[in-house]
Each structure stands twice: as structure tokens, then as C-alpha cells.
Design a protein that fits this description.
Chain lengths: 290, 440
């Protein structure tokens, strides 16, 4: 009897553990394994047996960390990310508050039209904007959207266009969950719409804002689609513009899966630090009070 | 970071899955039902897969399949270019490659270095006499082995808009100096028009122009590779184009982009230094300009010469992992040397065949060039002096470095020969890291 009871939890756990092992632990383990190896060529490297796989320890990781191109990539992505985060989340919050205010008309229509770009796949969005940016095709004259100085803004614009709707919807849904009594009480105390927004809505929204920020940080670290799609149109985006592009280049363009694995590990570590670092900094504010 | 890891996880799982799939079941599952059917002819039937991006290859393969019930070939259309090479190398590494693959000449050494393609000397070595020496050396890499059979070739020449040259009073340039002068004249006459463009996205194009000037980026010196991507002829070519870019008299729009298509269609780009396969590109990108183009030899570095280079062209290679190499060789021999097959390649696939006999049999000009009934004869004479060079085992690194370095040089209008030197540095660094022996 006791043994049977003892087995039940494991049976319930089995699907989760199996899925975790198959689709997370094993691939991550394989990435680590790859990152510790590389191929070694002898002589001309032609003919049978000229190429062998050898163990190199931390060499790939060391090379990945000391490659200036990776850090230049991070610089570009941090600049791009800061822009996207501030503008996109700013707009998302603004639209959510506007849609939630008592005086708004056509709320349903506005909500859907702001959300709609999110339903457009990233590649399609980048191509769509790419055609608007191309100097020879753009209907907007006078500005070179793909010049070295403008290209970051042009790409951030695509991300803002595509991402605002989703974040707005998350915030808006949270706003709808706030009991109306709070607002009534505030109005009785003489608060206007603006004061309600700043003193009631935004403080209650804080956890949701933090959630959308973490998601957005993760998304910007992974920026790949926009620069990769725009690259053929412009000579200002290099093959290592973002860290993930470098991984792609190493793995599939220059055929060095081992370096790509090492760089992926570095990116994963940095993503972890950034996301948890942000959560740690804001934890007191967001969750400490509740 | 959860999604990030998930992405890596999914990618690697997919790789694992294909690796296991081919080892465990792929081959045996396909043959099992055939043998149990107990019909001898069915049991001997060979299934071949063929990755390529030749237009209408499925129709050409169908002709083979009709005539050869024992060897059934399935053509699988690929995206072409760098992506196709990366895909093949990844599939080979995962143990699940196709039996036959279209291999651009510059990618073949990478395939060989990855041990992804088979040596065909015993079964196809006898085909040597059917191809020119230059093309044959591209599939032997100058060794005793044979890694593929040439399918098409891309000698370079000059395509130009005869009507617009006349309008601007420009003669067809026969030297690069005249080419530069023409660029200035045209841009001065109409600031929105350019003679041509410098494409920082097309390393193969630049390699062809360097070949014309006498460059030799790689060479085999005993048991060592000699790498000279920044040799003097290449620097000369780079600085020539860099000068025109700096002057602003040529366009820097990359070729094969929507903007480039538009400029061609609008008559804002008057010439293209391209390969013999260009009619296909022009007819799909600027169909309304049909009949307005003419062809000439590439401008020369020394007046009176007839030098050219190669841009593109590919061979058909057999996977080292293929279980049916003999059948694969039978098919590719038919495809690339049988007169009926090469005629199909020309008519349906719109390629310039590599086999010498097939080149001679070309008569009807491409539809886009119906104004030039002797298109093929002219083209053959312009391409007769095309020089090639040996490609190294990491062309993908060099080509990627070209895109990054030339993008930068074009944007900053900085030195193009410095860009070529950074291509050399990237190539050498990669080969050293991989352990290749390099000659000094």
C-alpha cells in the first residue's frame, strides 16, 4: 500500500519531467557539449580523415567572450532596446489609459486597430517597412531611413509598431480588472481623470508594467528578424549586427556550430542576468507591497 | 531567456531528431516494403533525392523517370545560394543528406572539407573529355579526385542598354578607363541615372571581376593552402570600383534588390557586368526593357585583350552518405552530358550548359534577346577568355567578410583595398583556427 501511494506523485510528475528532459535539458546539455568541442583539420583538409572533432575545453567560450564583435553587437542592441522599451511601453501605457477612460468613443475599434500590427508576422512587417524605407521606392522623400545614423531608429520603429498593441492589451486587461469602486471613491474625494490615472491606475498596474518590461527586454535581446530581413536592402547592417545574428552566422554561414553553441551560452547567461537583475531591482516596488 | 533557450532547444532537438531518424529508420523503412513485395524489379528500384534550384528541374527529372523505371529521382527545389550550401552541410552533418546536390563551384571545396561529397573518379572520371579544362579543374580542385560533374557555367560579359548609350552619346567601353569615363558622362547628363552599380552583397560577382584581372585567391602548394585574397589584381579591381563609388558616379544599390529591379526597369541603370545567365534575371526583373539590351565583352585592363571571369555556375555532386552512388552517377551523367538532357537544361532550366558539345549546340537566342539572333555565338566569344581560380575550403567565410567589409566601405566611402585586406585577414584567421596548413 505505501509503495503504491509513493508512486502516484511520480506518475503525475512524469509528463512534465519527460518533456523538460527531452525538450530543454537534453538540448541545453548538447549545446554545452558542442561548445566544448571543435573540428581540427590536417594539411589541406581534403580527403578522408583530414577532419577530426576534438575536445577544446573552455576555448570556444573564451573566444566568444573576448570577440569584440559580440560586444559591439550588444552595444547596438542595448541602444535599440532602450529606444524600443521606452517608446513602445510608453505608448502602450498611454493607449491603455486612454481606452480605459470614461470618455472614450469607438473604444473597440481603436483597441483592435492598435492591436492589429501584432498579428502581422515579423518578416512581413520588416519587408513592409523595408519598402517604405528604401530610398528609391519610399513615398516619404528627403530622409534616408537606412543611413548609418537612422537605421537603429528605423528598426526600432518596426518593433514599436508591432509590439505596442500586445503590451497595450495586457495593460488594458489589467485596468479592466480594477474594481470600479476605487474610482467612485476617488471621484467623491474630488479626483479628476488625470489624478485617477496617476494615483490609482498606474500604481495598481505596476506588476503588469513590470511583466511587459521583462517580456520586452527578452524580446529585444533576441532581435533577429528585423535586421536580418532589412540587411539585403541596406549596407549599414552587418552580419553580426545583433548577438543572435552572430550565432546564426557562425552556425549556418561560416559553418562553425561549436562557436555558435558557445556564443549562445553567453547570450543565455546575459539574458538571465538582465531579466533577473531587472526583476530584483524592481521586486520591492512591485511585489513587496502586496 | 526561457524562450531563447527554447529556441536553441527546438533547433537542436530538430537536428538530433533528423540525425536519429536517418540512422534508425530512414533507409531501412524505405526499402523494407519493397523487399517484402517480392517483386524483383520493385526490390531493385532505387530512390534518389536531388537538391537543386534549377528552374523546372522537376519536369526534366520526369523525363529521366519515364525512361528509367529502376532509378527514380525526386527533385527537391532549394532556395539557392549560400542558404542552400549551409542547408546541405547541416544535413550532411546530421547524417541525412540528399543523394545528389547542386554545388556552386566555390562551395565545392567546403563540401569536400566537410567530407560531405563522394569521390566519383571510378565511375565518372571518364567524362573529363566532355568538358573544358578550366571547368574540370573546378570539380577536381586540382587533385586526383573528382567531386562532382559540371552542370552550368557563368562566363562574364557586359550587358548594356544600347538605346540609352546612344541617347547619352556613349560608346561601348572596351577598357575599364573608358568604363569610368562613361560612368562620369552618364551621371553628369542625368544625375538620377548611373552607368552601373557596385554591389556590396555579391562576392561572387566581385570574385569574377578579380579573376578577369588575374587574381588567384587560393592555391594549393604541396600540402599547404596559399591564400591571397588581397593580391595585387584584386586590390586594383577594388580600388577601381572604390574610386567610382567615392566620386559618386555609380550607384551603390545592391544587385537583386527591389530597388535595383526598379532602377533597371526605369532605365536608371544602363549597364550590368554580369554572367551569361543574366537574360533570365533581366527578363523577370525588367521585362519591359526586352530588345533594348545588347552585349559586349567585359571592359579590359589592357586594351586589346579578351579576358573575362566566371560568376556562378555549379556542378552536381553525390553525397558521401548516399547508399546509391552508382545510380546517382548514372543519373548525373545523363543529366549533364546526354544531348537530350542538356537541351532540356537549356530550354527548361535556362542555364548555360557546362558540357562543351552542349554549348556548341545552342542556337536560338534567349527570348529576351530576340534582337540579337547571334547571342550565343557572341557570348561564347566573350567568354572564351574567362579565367577561373581555385576556391578554398572556407569561401563562405571570405564571402561573408566581403559583404560586411564592402558594406562598411561603401557606407563610409573608405578604401576598398582595405576592405579586401580584411577579407584576407578573416579568411586566414578562420583557416588557421580550423587547423589548415597555410603556405607563407
Amino acid at each position: 500500500m505505501p509503495s503504491k501511494r509513493g508512486a502516484a506523485p511520480y506518475v503525475f510528475l512524469a509528463p512534465a519531467v519527460t518533456l523538460f528532459t527531452l525538450f530543454l535539458a537534453v538540448p541545453i546539455g548538447y549545446t554545452v557539449y558542442l561548445s566544448l568541442r571543435r573540428t581540427k583539420v590536417k594539411g589541406l583538409g581534403l580527403g578522408k580523415g583530414a577532419k577530426t572533432e576534438i575536445f577544446v575545453g573552455w576555448d570556444n567560450l573564451k573566444t566568444a567572450v573576448t570577440d569584440p564583435e559580440l560586444w559591439h553587437g550588444w552595444e547596438r542592441v542595448v541602444g535599440y532596446g532602450a529606444l524600443v522599451l521606452v517608446v513602445m511601453l510608453g505608448f502602450a501605457l498611454l493607449f491603455a489609459l486612454l481606452l480605459d477612460s470614461a470618455h472614450v468613443r469607438l473604444s473597440r475599434f481603436s483597441r483592435i486597430s492598435i492591436f492589429l500590427p501584432y498579428a502581422v508576422p515579423g518578416v512581413v512587417a520588416s519587408l513592409l517597412w523595408g519598402f517604405l524605407y528604401l530610398p528609391g521606392m519610399t513615398p516619404i522623400g528627403g530622409i534616408d531611413f537606412l543611413s548609418p545614423t537612422a537605421v537603429t531608429y528605423s528598426m526600432a520603429n518596426i518593433a514599436v509598431w508591432g509590439g505596442t498593441g500586445f503590451n497595450m492589451l495586457v495593460l488594458y486587461t489589467n485596468l479592466r480588472a480594477i474594481p470600479q469602486e476605487y474610482y467612485e471613491a476617488a471621484r467623491m474625494d474630488g479626483a479628476g481623470e488625470l489624478e485617477i490615472a496617476f494615483r490609482i491606475k498606474i500604481p495598481i498596474l505596476t506588476p503588469a508594467i513590470i511583466l511587459t518590461t521583462v517580456f520586452s527586454i527578452i524580446a529585444t535581446i533576441q532581435v533577429f528578424t528585423e535586421p536580418t530581413t532589412l540587411r539585403p536592402f541596406s549596407n549599414t547592417i552587418s552580419s553580426t549586427w545583433s548577438p543572435l545574428m552572430k550565432v546564426y552566422r557562425d552556425a549556418f554561414v561560416t559553418g562553425d556550430l561549436y562557436s555558435a553553441a558557445a556564443t549562445s551560452l553567453v547570450i543565455a547567461a546575459i539574458s538571465l542576468v538582465l531579466s533577473f537583475g531587472f526583476l530584483r531591482v524592481v521586486r520591492g516596488r512591485a511585489f513587496g507591497e502586496s | 531567456m526561457v524562450t531563447k533557450r527554447l529556441a536553441v532547444a527546438v533547433a537542436l532537438t530538430a537536428a538530433l531528431a533528423t540525425a536519429c531518424g536517418s540512422g534508425g529508420s530512414g533507409g531501412s523503412a524505405a526499402s523494407a516494403p519493397a523487399s517484402s513485395a517480392a517483386a524483383p524489379s520493385a526490390a531493385e528500384k532505387v530512390e534518389l533525392t536531388y537538391w537543386n534550384w534549377v528552374p523546372n528541374m522537376d519536369k526534366i527529372v520526369e523525363v529521366w523517370n519515364q525512361a528509367h523505371p529502376d532509378i527514380h529521382v525526386t527533385s527537391s527545389k532549394q532556395a539557392g545560394g549560400d542558404d542552400a550550401a549551409a542547408k546541405f552541410l547541416t544535413a550532411a552533418k546530421a547524417g541525412n543528406p540528399p543523394d545528389l546536390v547542386q554545388a556552386e563551384y566555390q562551395m565545392l571545396p567546403s563540401f569536400v572539407a566537410a567530407e560531405a561529397v563522394a569521390d566519383l573518379t571510378p565511375s565518372a572520371g571518364g567524362l573529363k573529355s566532355q568538358f573544358g579544362d578550366g571547368l574540370w579543374s573546378l570539380v577536381t580542385l586540382g587533385t586526383d579526385a573528382l567531386y562532382g560533374v559540371p552542370q552550368d557555367s557563368g562566363p562574364m560579359m557586359l550587358y548594356y542598354r544600347a538605346d540609352l548609350f546612344k541617347k547619352y552619346g556613349v560608346d561601348v567601353p572596351t577598357t575599364w578607363d573608358e568604363f569610368a569615363a562613361a560612368a562620369r558622362t552618364i551621371h553628369k547628363a542625368d544625375p538620377k541615372s548611373y552607368l552601373t552599380n557596385f554591389s556590396s552583397k555579391d562576392p561572387g560577382w566581385f570574385a569574377g571581376l578579380s579573376q578577369q584581372a588575374g587574381a588567384s585567391w587560393w592555391g594549393i602548394n604541396g600540402d599547404a593552402w596559399k591564400v591571397a585574397v588581397n593580391d595585387d589584381p584584386t586590390k586594383k579591381v577594388a580600388d577601381f570600383w572604390g574610386g567610382l563609388v567615392k566620386e559618386g558616379v555609380i550607384s551603390t544599390t545592391a544587385s537583386f534588390t527591389p530597388e535595383w529591379n526598379k532602377a533597371l526597369a526605369d532605365g536608371k541603370l544602363l549597364a550590368w557586368t554580369s554572367a551569361i545567365w543574366a537574360p533570365g534575371v533581366l527578363s523577370s526583373n525588367a521585362p519591359k526593357t526586352a530588345g533594348k539590351w545588347e552585349i559586349a565583352a567585359l571592359p579590359q585592363w589592357n586594351a586589346g585583350e579578351n579576358a573575362s571571369g566566371f560568376w556562378g555556375g555549379s556542378a552536381v555532386a553525390v553525397s558521401a552518405a548516399s547508399k546509391h552512388q552508382d545510380a546517382a552517377v548514372k543519373f548525373l551523367t545523363w543529366l549533364n552530358t546526354d544531348p537530350a538532357a542538356t537541351k532540356l537544361l537549356v530550354d527548361q532550366g535556362a542555364i548555360y550548359p557546362a558540357a562543351t558539345a552542349a554549348q556548341g549546340a545552342l542556337s536560338t537566342a534567349p527570348e529576351f534577346f530576340s534582337n540579337l539572333p547571334d547571342f550565343w555565338q557572341k557570348a561564347a566569344s566573350f567568354g572564351a577568355g574567362a579565367r577561373g581560380f581555385t576556391f578554398g575550403p572556407d569561401v563562405n567565410v571570405t564571402y561573408n567578410a566581403y559583404k560586411d567589409a564592402m558594406d562598411k566601405a561603401v557606407a563610409a566611402k573608405s578604401s576598398f583595398s582595405d576592405a579586401v585586406t580584411s577579407m584576407q585577414d578573416a579568411t586566414v584567421a578562420d583557416m588557421q583556427k580550423a587547423g589548415f596548413t597555410l603556405a607563407q
